[in-house]
Amino acid sequence: MKAVILAGGEATRLRPLTCNTPKIMVPVLNRPFLEHLVAYLKTHDIVDIVLAVGKLPEQVASYFGDGSKFGVRIAYSTEDFPMGTAGAVKNAEKLVDDPFFVFNGDIFTDIDLSAMMRLHRQRKAIASLALTPVDDPTTYGVVETDSEGRVKRFTEKPSPDKVTTNMINAGIYILEPDILTHITPNTFSMFERDVFPPLLDSGHAIYSYPSSDYWIDMGTPDKYLRLQHDLLRRHPGPEGAEFEGESFAHSSARIEGPVLIGEACSIDRNSMIRGPAILGAGCRVGEDAVIEGAILWLDCEIGRGARLRNCLVASRCHIGEESEVLDGCVLGDDVLIGKANKLSNGIKIWPGKSIEPGAISF
Ligand code: GDD
Ligand code: MG
């Protein structure tokens, strides 16, 4: 079976993490997000993958190549301009046949794709959409169905007064190749606004596959953090501390799981790492520093007595002595926080910026 993965969006909501790194390459448990998605597809025998990437991102191609190292076949489909979710699939038309899967490239889930395909074949629908329940449907596509699971209405990002159900489009479709005749080539178009609603209006059969299995769209900082906290609790498990390679941790350092520590890290005396937390390879944690709930990418340096809590820190950042980076803060690559700063409440710092000692304190 084939899958098209949509990965040509701008990932603005995940900035500054995605200033230098495409969303599908953002690390999850110290591996590119796409590696998890590929592994999941493989468990459902989906090994032919079309990556609809917009521009060919060097980082993706050099890491994944033709997919053979990961046991799959990857073809790349590029766009001269952003074609939208449906336009991107139309643009990859020559690479698909039979009913095929389409995935939003930022979904982490355990939804049973094999069962979804079985149901799709029984129902003879032009499309099947996986649905998942969420607390706030207004930032998603809301999907109303009848008692047989046939889709009645699709409303993308409705205002609160238009929300009629908490079941939303999970960003996973099975499409019959026929549906491509309803998409204009070389034109921007979205399944969510330009394809599904008119197909429903004209009476085409679109069915749903509701599921309560784990599902998250990791396209915002809070959900990217939550995804990794959730995965750490599964692996290495609530108490676990996993070292991916040789690292140094001083005997007085305290490490409370679940924690994942990349290779070549050093954790100095009296410091504390309280999970769920992740250090990417080459991170150095200074004396008396405290890291809790935080995700660090590669080669970060955390100064003496610094404190990081529930924040996201991209590669090669330096956090000065006694500085705090707290709840929801996001630092891009190569950010330098001088000593005795206090960042909280979701402050975002763009790649390469330096903050003078003591400049921020709220
Ligand atoms: N190739 C290509 N070209 N891909 C694109 C383009 C494009 O022009 N525009 C967006 N994408 C990709 C993004 O990279 C992402 O993987 C996927 O399409 C969905 O785009 P998002 O920007 O993440 O959409 P969303 O999260 O606001 O909403 C979508 O996902 C929700 C579920 O998470 C919609 O499909 C909603 O209906 C859905 O509920
Ligand atoms: Mg998304």
Structure in words:
The structure is a single chain. The protein has 362 residues and is α/β, with parallel strands linked by helices. It folds into 2 domains: 2-219, Spore Coat Polysaccharide Biosynthesis Protein SpsA, Chain A (Alpha-Beta Complex), CATH 3.90.550.10; 227-361, UDP N-Acetylglucosamine Acyltransferase, domain 1 (3 Solenoid). It has 6 helices and 33 strands. The strands form 7 sheets. A 7-stranded mixed sheet has the order 5-4-1-6-11-8-12, with helices on both faces. Strand 2 (27-28) and strand 3 form a beta hairpin. Helix 3 packs across helix 5. The longest helix is centred in the middle third of the chain and has 14 residues, at 221-234. It is elongated. The mean pLDDT is 96. The chain binds guanosine-5'-diphosphate-alpha-D-mannose and magnesium ion. Residues 104, 106, 217, 219 line the site of magnesium ion.
